[in-house]
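Work Package 3 (structural annotation) set out to generate three-dimensional models for the target panel prioritized at the project kickoff. During this period the team completed the workflow that converts sequence records into C-alpha cells, so that structures can be stored uniformly alongside our sequence database. As a representative example, we reproduce one entry of 654 residues exactly as it appears in the project archive.
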Amino acid sequence: MSRTILINAREGDMPHGEVRVAIIENGSLTDFDVDPQWKEKTRGNIYRGVITNVEPALQAAFVDFGAKKQGFLSFSDVAPHAYRPDAPKNARTITEALKRKQHVTVQILKEEIGQKGAALTTYVSLPGRYLVLMPSGEGAHISRKIEDEEERRRIKALAASLDPPENVGLIVRTAGMEQPKAVLARDLKYLLKMWEGIEARFRAATRPTLLHQDHDAILRTLRDYLTPDVTRIIVDTPQAFDTAKEFIAVAMPKQESMLERYDGRRPLFTEFNVETQVEALFSRRAPLPTGGYLIIDQTEALVSIDVNSGKNNREGSQEETAFRTNIEAVTEVARQLKLRDLGGIVVVDLIDMMNPNHRAEVEKRFKEAIKSDKARFKVSPISQHGLLELTRQRIRPALLEGMMTTCPECDGRGRVRALQSEGTHLLRAVADRLAHELASGQSAKVTLDVPVEVAMHLLNDRRPALQALEAQHNAHIRVQAKTHLPAPHYAISLDKDFAPPAVHEPRRPAPITMDEPDAELPGAEAEPAAAVPVAEGGAKKRRRRGRRGKGGEGHAPAPVSSAREMNDDDAFDVAVLPMASAPVEAEALGDDESAFEDHEVPMASDADVEMIDEGAAAEAPSVAAVPPAGKRRRRRRRGGRGGRGGGRGASPTP
C-alpha cells in the first residue's frame, strides 16, 4: 500500500501559524502531526537541570531546568550514572540517590499538562534514522515491532558488530531492519557526535539551560515515517522544501526523487481532501462506515470511548448488529488513538456481545489494527460488561491539548478552538473560498463575520497575513466583529462585482460660529416672538413662558428661532422639539396632566416674573416673552414652585 506525506508549512512562517504534516493512504488520513508556532515544543529536549527539592514521600525530586514550572523526576527514571558521588550503587530511595543543588542531565518525557509540570528522565535517548542511541544504557536492543525470533537474533548480532562505546546502548529501529552494516555504522557515528556536543555544552554551562532541541514536525516525520512504502513527499513552501531536501540528501539520498514542490492556488490539504478529515479530529463524534459512531471524551485520568450502533440495523439479529458494529469500531478506535495521540488508560465501551467467539474476534481485530502505531500498547481482554481496557504510550502531546483552550463560557465542560488556531483556520477558509470561486485575474470583496475576539486577533496579529491574502487573490477582505456571534462560528460572504473605490479628498464641513444666527430649528418660525402688551386696570403680571398653574392664564412658550436664544445649559437640558408658531390658549390644553408631563418646555426664571402695578402700567415698556440671551431658563414641574393654585405661578390677588 503506497503512502503520501503532505507537509503544509504555508502558515508556519507567521508568528501565530502552524506547521502541519499528514500521512495519507489511498486518500485516508492515517497519521497527523502539528507544530503550533505560538507554543514551544519541548518533548524530547535535553536540559541541564538543578534539583531544587527531594520528596521522600513521593519518591521523586523536583528539577529546575529553566521553564516556568519545575519538572517532576521520579526515582524510577533516575539512572545509576546520575546518582550523587557518595550514593551507594544499589540505592533504594530517592534521598540516597539524589540531593539538593545537584546538577543532572534530564530529558522531557511528557510536556506540561494543566497545572502539572513536565515529566523528566535521566535515561537520555537520541533517535536517529535507523538507530536510537542510549548513552545511559548497555547492549543492543531490538524494536518491539519485530516479533520474528530469527530476525531479532540476526539484527541483534548486526548491532553488536557495530562496536558501540562502553556503557552505550543501541536500539535498531524498524526502518533499519533491511539496512546494511555500513548504513547503520554511519547513523551511529552521527548520533555519537551529537552526544559529544551535548556533554560539552553541559560542562560549559553553570545554570539550567537547553542542551539539545529535538527536530521540528517536518524532520521528525521524515526521520520516523519515511519508509520504502512512501511514494510521494509534497511540500508547499520553498523553505520547507529546502529543509526536507537537505535532510533526505544526508539521511536517505536514494529517496530524494520522491520530493515534490506544490505551488497551487488552493491550500495543500484542501487539494488532497485532507482538510475535512483534520477538522473531524476536533469533534467528539467519529462516524463509522455503516452508520454507527464513536463518542470520544478525554479527561485527566483516562480516555473514554463509547460505541453506538446508530443507524446500523442491516444485520438479521441484535448479536450480528453488535458484532459488525464492534468490528468497525475497534478499527476506528486504533486510528483515532494514533491521530489524536491519546495516551494513558483508555476504556472502550463496546456493544454487548453474548457470543464468546465474537468477543475473541473483536480483540484479534483490534490488535491487528494497532500494529501500525509506534506507541506501546497493553490490551486486556473484553470484560463481561463489554469493556475493552488498554493502556497506550503517549508519543507527543495530545492534539486537543495543543490546539484547544478551555472554554470560558462553559468553564471547561466544553471546548472551542484556540484563538491562534481559529485565525489560521479562517485564513485557510478564505483562501479556499477565493481559490475555488474566483477566476484568474478577477477581483472580489470578502466580508468575514467573526466574534469580537477573533476579529481583534485577525486585525492586530494577523494583519500581514490578510494583506498577503489580498495581494495573492486580488481581493479586498473586510473583517466585521459580531458581538452576538459565539465562537467558533463565522460567516464568509463573497461579492464578485466589487470594484475598488476611488480615492477622494475628504470634505471638511464649514466652521460654525456664533456671530451669525444658526439655521432654524424644525418647526420654528423665523420671526421673533411678539411682545406681550400690558392690560389696563388692576395689577397685571407679565406673560411668561412655560405651563401655568391652575389659577393662571399663561400661554404656551413662544418659538425659539435661533441658537442665540438658547444658552449652553439649554442645549443639554432642553429637548429640541418642534415649537408652535402661535400662542396656545389654556383651554386648548385643558386639565390633562399628561399634556404637561409628556411635553416639557423651558420655563422662565424667577427674575423674569415681575408684578407691575396699575399706575406704572402706562409707562411700562413692552417685554418680550423670550428671556435675554445668557439668562438660564429653569424647568418647572408641577408640585414644586409654580405648581397648582396657591403657588408662585398662580395669578396674584389684587
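The first strand starts at residue 3 and ends at 8.
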